[in-house]
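Task card 7
Instruction: Convert sequence to structure tokens.
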Amino acid sequence: MGEEKTRKVDTKEFELPETVFIRDIENRVFQGIVLQCLARVEGITLVEGNFIDSILGRGNVEGGIKGIYSEQDNKTHTVDIKVEVNICYGVSIPDKAEEIQTKIAEEITKMTGLHVSRVHVVFKNIVSPSQMKKILGPSAPMPVESNLEDEYNDEF
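Output:
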């Protein structure tokens, strides 16, 4: 009579499933970040030609901005970036590549939280200082042209 029946309850009925948070970042976001980084680098232009047109969204190709490509790996939370640029004659290519790669990697990591696994910079063409002024406009800073004969000597 005093015996109460206890019924076993499956605890799975009371457990809530874990919340899954998903964050998708479109390739245009990466292209925009890279474009802003490249706009702050002197002595280069996009293969497309005009930074102002790119920033304003004029002349974009269907897949985004010509010369800026990104590929995400959602499993490892990384992104690969490929950038095609023209460089002004007289600018050190290794130094400029390092500057571009560092700026892009820092900005993308800071803004998206993703690890940048690779920044591939392709220098497509060399542009004369006069062409660079036409492309960027008269207010754009130009690299200082140096006289290589004055800088080079055989003495140690």
